[in-house]
Specification:
mainly alpha, MetI-like fold, 0% strand
Length: 304
Amino acid sequence: MSKPQSSGTVKRAPEEAPEARVGSPGRFATLWRRFSRNRLAVIGLGIVTTMILTAIFAPLLAPYDPYGQNYAVTLQSPNGTYLLGTDSLGGDILSRVIHGSRISLQASLTSVGIAIGLGVPLGLISGYFRGFLDEVLIMRLIDSIQAFPFLILALVIAAILGGGLTFAMIAIGIGFTPAFVRITRGQVLTVRNLEYVQAARSVGVGHLPIMLRHVLPNSLPPLLVQTTLALGYAIIAEATLSFLGLGASPGVPSWGSMLYQAQSYLTSAWWMAFFPGMAIFFAVLGFNLLGDGIREALDPKMQS
């Protein structure tokens, strides 16, 4: 006797969109192949990697104590003993620049992390649920924040919080938040109406699993590019706040505080400003080139 056939239809969970499988080995190899074709992007990756390694091994690479002072060797030009010269207090510029990479990297990673932690959830909620929550609450708040120029906003927040490197990182993170909100929201508005998201809703999948498993993964490529570019801008912002006295204190080997110390010696000791300035230049250049390379690698129009 044959088994009775069920007349009901078994509901199956929708398959994840192919675009979301960005972590598969084949997908990664394809992205790396596209990325490596861009020589400038590879140079940017090399610069960023060098900066990270320099920050990690700073105590081993620095020839002298970055906080040390020797008034017998003040304002010495670059020579065999002090490769990048000394500052007005007799500190070794090379050692301070090397340790300054730690401050800049810490500030950029922390501030961008704050922006991602605030901006991505707000953009995800705003774009997915829409309505009053989106148009009246979240986006009007973002518009009010963006009404102020970024640097002015960061200066005001840092001044209100009291100055110091920690508060400077918080101020920079808040200033970057609107960009991450808008990018996330724009991607979510596109993804939320795709077929696989609608299929997930039709089989009763909850809002949170849909947002985390289907919507957010397909919104990551532009966020990754924005993150890379924001890291470079955060280095400039931290250096600016430190130069203005609202970031790292003058005694801390920060590139911005080194520029502040060098402003009175631009004609008599050019090396005090030149080498920290070049460190900022190459760090920002590296992140920008890396971001452009990632954008081209993830752009469907660049596929071949």
